[in-house]
Amino acid sequence: MTKLFLIPKPNPHATLRLFCFPYAGGAPNIFMPWLNKLPNNVELVLIQLPGRGARLMEAPHNKMSSIIDELMLHSSFITQKPNVFFGHSLGSRVAYELALTLQKNNLALPQKLIASGSRAPHLENHKTPIYHLPESEFITKLRELNGTPKEVLDNAELMELFLPLLRADFEIADCYQTEKHPLPVPIDVFFGHEDIDVTPPMINAWQALSALPITQHAFNGDHFFINSHSEQVIKAVSKLLNSL
Question: Alpha-carbon Rg of the chain, whole angstroms?
């Protein structure tokens, strides 16, 4: 199996796969707490892009198109079983773009797309880009965003290792915008009550990307509620998986 997919607990009898796409700068291990808390018929598949985890020494992607190109090399595995896509923040937009590309290639689509903590990807990013800032300013912005562990930000050697990945991820997050194309896939949108970066109009805009009514789910916490309130998130995801 390619390093792109990390399957921490293989389940050959699974009838459904849950593909999880991490946020900018995030690694697959953010989903490890989910491992034994999902329905028994679900196999958890974590997306491990270059520059993190077992692929730490590989050059990271800095364009959405190159991420999708790599994923589509394995489209036969992705579409092998019924599946659901879950992404958080940038991961939501990767998941949507992958679903859109599968449709363009007449391949099986996910049964559901769970878009967590993200503006709809056809919206323009009105935030000032940070990926090209000088190192000290870039690190200051990362601290403000509160998604990179403090022990990493405070360790000069680790930051030297992770800066190329973080800059590449934020280049995609800052610059990527897709076409508005409604998919025949139900979309569930997760958001944090205290998330100042993802506003109600940005959440509502996901409706333009589904031919079916979207469903919104509010959680306690800020942009990284997926970490701070992971039990709530896991319960909600499990409920949606059981409904399929």
Answer: 17
Q: Do 211 and 183 touch, CB atoms closer than 8 A?
A: yes
3-state secondary structure of 238: helix
CA dihedral for 30, 185, 207, 63, sign (positive or negative): positive
Residue range 5-22+35-120+182-242 in CATH 3.30.300.30? no
Mean pLDDT by 10 residues, the chain (244 residues): 90 97 92 96 97 91 97 98 97 98 98 98 89 90 80 85 91 93 97 94 98 98 94 98 96
- Among all residues, which ones are annotated catalytic? 89
Exposed/middle/buried for residue 9 (C-beta within 10 Å: 0-12, 13-18, 19+): exposed
Give me the residue spans of the domains in the chain: 5-22+35-120+182-242, 126-175
- Report the alpha-carbon distance of residue 183 to residue 59 in Å, rounded: 32
The angle that helices 64-72 and 90-104 make with each other, rounded to 10 degrees, is 50
- Which three-class secondary structure state does DSSP give residue 217? strand
* pTM across the whole model: 0.95
